[in-house]
Design goal:
The chain is α+β, with helices and mostly antiparallel strands. The protein is elongated. It has a six-stranded mixed sheet, with helices on one face. A three-stranded antiparallel sheet has the order 2-8-7, with no helix packed on it. It folds into two domains: 42 residues, no CATH class; 94 residues, no CATH class. Helix 1 packs antiparallel against helix 2.
Length: 154
């Protein structure tokens, strides 16, 4: 998704720099292109992706919490193992004491049950499997244990 946005921005800026009549428009398009390249460079460093509440593109997939770090005044950092990729996704959730407490309690419950710790946001109306963090907080919960295989008679 991010790559598609940068590709579209590069095409628009490239067209503006090639076909614009005014020199100030060409210079502005070049400055936008340099800023976009700096953003691509910063995103490629592996910094946690900020999850901004209320934005339309702020949806996050549901997945298993591989690790988390609660940095009290700043953010809650979560390493999320999504269902559709093999690499973890590093997220920076906005700091909220209620979310930090819920995460800690769910992690302790998952450890007692010997289960995985899962995370999800509020389900979107489209039902596309993506979740969004809007006005609601993320939900942390221990994964349910898989059902036992059916019994066979000897």
């Amino acid at each position: 998704m991010v790559a598609a946005i940068f590709a579209a921005a590069a095409l628009v800026v490239g067209a503006a720099s090639l076909f614009a009549a005014a020199d100030w428009l060409k210079a502005g398009a070049y400055c936008v292109l340099v800023a976009a390249l700096a953003a691509v460079w910063w995103l490629s460093l592996g910094q946690p992706r900020p999850v901004l509440a209320g934005l339309p593109g702020a949806g996050i997939p549901a997945g298993t919490v591989g690790a988390f770090l609660v940095d009290e005044p700043h953010a809650i950092y979560v390493w999320l193992l999504t269902n559709d990729t093999h690499a973890p996704l590093s997220l920076a959730l906005p700091w909220n004491e209620r979310d930090a407490t819920a995460l800690h309690d769910a992690a302790q419950a998952a450890a007692k049950m010997h289960a995985r710790l899962e995370m999800r946001g509020a389900q979107t109306a489209g039902g596309n499997g993506r979740h969004i963090l809007g006005s609601q907080s993320p939900t942390f919960y221990p994964a349910p244990n898989p059902p036992l295989p059916p019994k066979t008679r000897p």
